[in-house]
Design a protein that fits this description.
five-stranded mixed beta sheet; two-stranded parallel ribbon; 12 helices; 7 strands; globular
Amino acid sequence: MIGSSVARLAAAAGLEVVLSNSRGPETLAGLVADLGGRARAATPAEAARAADLVVAAIPLNAYEQLPADALAGKTVLDTANYYPERDGHLAELDAGELTSSALVQRHLTGSQVIKAFNNITPHQLFSLARPAGAPDRSALPVAGDDAEAKAEATRLLDVLGYDAVDIGILAASWRSEPNTPVYVQPYLGETPAMNVEAFLRWTLRTPGVVVPAARVRKLVETAVRRPAGEARLPSDD
């Protein structure tokens, strides 16, 4: 769903979009039709090779399926979060020895991984986008080890409707992961208690809350690292 929202924002901004998934290009026909003439579908390897910039919007438990050879030399924006109840327990993440994006970077040895788009729900990612200079523009955190790749990601966020807040290297990307102050909740505002299905329906009816760059910085600075193994899905927070 994050991938679809990024694709919609990109197509609306005039970018060429190549979509892929694990089920085959034909399963993306409806989304491609909705996006219009600037979008097409391909296999993951084909999309990777065609792209100037890649957004990997997948569950963390599928990270090893990313085509490392095809992604070599690319900047890859990683949107994944670690949820043990979905992904299974990963000892290095539970112990805080790695962040989830550092794990993805270890798999994608020839790529530059940037943590982005991971701390906002799909509908709010789309609904809160604003043009550069808008007084109600929100910001999103980004983290990465390569300055040029991070700048590239920042330019993409700007085109898509967001300011970017640099929160450091991949080892610091835990500051935007689940259980942190900047994760999901600020962009939703007060959230009623509900189950997963009801939460997802509710987010589709909620326009979201503006979170400017200054507030993102403050929230990131106040983050305290909690055991990754305690992470819960947003609807359970």
